[in-house]
Design a protein that fits this description.
single chain, 705 residues, alpha+beta, seven-stranded mixed sheet, six-stranded mixed sheet, globular
Length: 705
């Protein structure tokens, strides 16, 4: 089907006019009606015929092994089908991720590790079977608490994301010693958990040697590849469907226990099996943000420019798999200093394996760095915005590469204008409203602009019975509006109205695509969709399939990052220590904004999650029992609408020619990055006190004189 490129009297083509209406417009989410009417089906809502139900059994010891199993009472229950343990479960190939090597040995690496799967005719039967299962353990010594002086700390070669564990530039020791103003500050953050609205779930069925799995996942391609390797299948024998996903925030970025257990249960019983994790078990098996103890050493000159910047992180990992929260990495990007030292130390404990949580590394690392910058500004009597402006580097400090674009200064200035920063009294504790102390704070934010190779196909449909073009790509829409934005990209390039494009996502049978993670989804998938549509338009053919591997590999050497600034106004009750956020404003530079509606939603969602990180969210490891204490949303407090009455996000127009054909940077994570520090800095401004441990709950803030 040919594209109408006729021009009007002003020389504007139909494609140009369509693009003006489509890409960047606040188009409504395509899946919105299906979600609000309940017809959108999530992983747990796929129920094949003769479906059985699995209930995982978690270990009740923090370290050791299973020594005896008695399933007689469990199997005596009406409707009981099977109890899978390391003694009878299907044998699995060893995956790259040891957390998936389930029911293969009696080993218990941490409390909550799955040691059995009860399978019954109904969820109620399976749950009762799990209760009736009798297990005996050999309990071994264990350790679950990280501390800065832990004797088994070691420096890892790499942190998460492949970043070097340690980096040094210039002579940090000499520069720090010679600086006229020196700051040695420690910031602490406990474990955090993702808790998406949709718990982790999977439904699996074997059909003639073909495994079909409906999974709550951020990437069906990776899940299908992993299952194929573990069950010794050709990749073409596995189909993973993740059509709708109710949030993930990183916890669904890699395959998780439910899909493996469901596939094992289905293979063992010959029935379809569904596994839905109770929310109380999520903290133990789907990852968490690891706790960090961060030491910042800053050497500053009289004018506030940095002579030395040191950022050293202590964190934990599990005994199963090394995962190192890359919290020191942002200090390699944000500000220039003549001498810098950044590094990580980690200890392997008997804890669940930490994993990705929205903006891993950047969220905790920038909390510490941006609070430290505020402390420097206060001590030197320099406006916090001005201090940051004076330290913006010309090139990325760590690599020396030029930035593809860098508009942090514009974000700070525009945010200051919108927030009314010029009216701020810089004196801490100067504003009161009865018993309430009022303060304002600011923090910068950043996030890398990642992109990965992807494939996509587009077909011209000529029968006139529906959409004119059909786009197919295994992208995953985790609630971000990916379907809508990719359709906008296609319509833009083809020069057709948005409703002329049909798009299929969320199945490993579609052209291969990377997962929705690292704020890289739209940039990666959009590049492939854009390329396919362009080749179809230029060739005049009926179907085109493309791969962007060579395009991504040919990118020039630039440091690609999004930047932003977050402003906060808080009140602190002088009697109770309760902190309330009155206003939050974020201004971001994230390349071309492809859909104004979904972009604003993503920015505000990230900022809200940052508010939770600052004020309400925390997990606690029980040193005696070895597990997490906060196991549900009654104990783990996420913010609600009433927790921030005024929240807004804006962006500046940014054209970055060095990114990808659609010009977009990721926006899903940058909103969380600066928010905790902005709130913490506002609390200092309100009270005159520095609090260096999150969250800022009333018991920590306490009465303020």
């Amino acid at each position: 089907m040919a594209v109408d490129d006729t021009t009007d009297t002003a020389g504007t083509t139909r494609a140009d006019r369509t693009a003006e209406r489509v890409l960047g417009s606040p188009a409504l989410r395509r899946e919105g009606p299906a979600k609000v009417t309940g017809t959108a089906r999530y992983a747990a809502e796929h129920t094949p015929p003769d479906c059985a139900y699995g209930w995982p059994v978690a270990a009740t010891v923090p370290h050791g092994g299973v020594t005896a199993i008695d399933d007689s009472d469990a199997m005596a229950l009406p409707g009981a089908l099977a109890v899978l343990t390391h003694e009878n479960a299907p044998r699995l190939g060893e995956p790259d991720d040891p957390t998936l090597h389930l029911l293969q040995t009696p080993r218990v690496p941490h409390r909550g590790w799955y040691v059995a799967l009860a399978v019954g005719e109904t969820p109620e039967v399976a749950r009762e079977m799990a209760r009736e299962l009798r297990l005996s353990y050999d309990k071994e010594p264990y350790d679950v608490l990280v501390r800065a002086d832990h004797p088994e700390l070691y420096p890892p070669e790499q942190a998460n994301g492949g970043y070097p564990g340690a980096r040094e530039a210039g002579d940090f020791d000499a520069e720090y010693a010679a600086a006229p103003h020196r700051f040695d500050l420690t910031y602490t953050l406990g474990p955090l958990h993702n808790h998406p609205m949709e718990p982790h779930a999977a439904t699996a069925v074997w059909e003639g040697g073909h495994l079909i799995a409906y999974d709550s996942s951020q990437g069906a391609t990776l899940v299908s590849e992993t299952l194929a390797a573990m069950f010794d299948l050709d990749p073409r024998q596995v189909t993973v469907v993740a059509e709708h996903v109710g949030g993930g925030f990183g916890s669904k970025g890699t395959p998780r226990a439910p899909v493996v257990l469901a596939a094992m249960g289905a293979k063992h019983t010959g029935r379809a099996v569904k596994v839905v994790l109770p929310r109380r078990e999520l903290p133990f098996v789907v990852g968490h943000r690891a706790p960090t103890v961060q030491r910042l050493r800053v050497g500053a000159r009289d004018d506030g420019t940095l002579a030395a910047l040191g950022h050293e992180v202590v964190t934990h990992t599990s005994t199963l798999r090394e995962f190192v929260e890359q919290a020191a990495v942002p200090s390699r990007v944000m500000y220039g200093a003549d001498g810098s030292r950044t590094g990580h130390h980690v200890v392997a404990l008997n804890v669940p394996t930490p994993s990705w949580m929205r903006a891993p590394g950047e969220a905790p690392g920038m909390y510490a760095l941006e609070c430290a910058m505020d402390e420097v500004a206060t001590a030197l009597d320099i406006d916090p915005i001005e201090l940051r402006l004076r330290n913006i580097p010309d090139r990325e400090p760590d690599s020396g590469r030029p930035f593809s674009s860098h508009h942090l200064g514009d974000c700070l200035r525009e945010g200051a204008r919108r927030f009314g920063w010029e009216r701020r009294d810089p004196r801490p504790g100067a504003r009161r409203d009865g018993e309430l102390l009022l303060g304002t704070g600011v923090a910068a934010s950043t996030y890398p602009a990642y992109v990965a190779p992807s494939t996509a196909s587009v077909q011209a449909m000529g029968d006139g019975s529906g959409p004119a073009y059909h786009v197919r790509i295994n992208a995953t829409d985790i609630g971000t509006g990916a379907r809508t934005v990719l359709a906008q990209i296609a319509a833009d390039e083809l020069g057709v109205p948005l409703d002329a494009v049909r798009i299929d996502v969320g199945s490993s049978d579609l052209p291969t695509a990377p997962l929705a993670g690292g704020s890289s989804g739209t940039a990666s998938w959009g590049w492939a969709v854009h390329k396919a549509c362009r080749e179809l338009r230029e060739s005049g053919g009926s179907i085109v399939t493309v791969d962007t591997t060579s395009d991504v590999q040919a990118q020039e050497e630039y440091a690609r990052h999004a930047f932003g600034a977050v402003f906060a106004e808080v009140s602190v009750d002088a009697v109770t220590g309760e902190v309330r956020v009155r206003r939050l404003l974020g201004v971001f530079a994230a390349g071309r904004i492809l859909n104004a509606r979904t972009a604003r939603s993503q920015f505000i969602g990230g900022m809200t999650m940052g508010l939770g990180m600052a004020l309400t969210e925390h997990s606690t490891l029980d040193a005696r029992l070895g597990g997490f204490v906060e196991k549900d949303l009654a104990g783990y407090h996420v913010p609600a609408h009433a927790d921030v009455p005024d929240i807004d996000a804006h962006w500046i127009e940014e054209h970055d020619p060095h990114l990808n054909p659609v010009g977009g940077k990721g926006i899903g994570e940058i909103g969380i990055v600066g928010t905790p520090a902005a709130i913490a800095n506002a609390v200092h401004h309100a009270t005159g006190r520095r609090y260096r441990e999150l969250p800022l709950t009333p018991d920590r803030v306490g009465p303020v004189g």
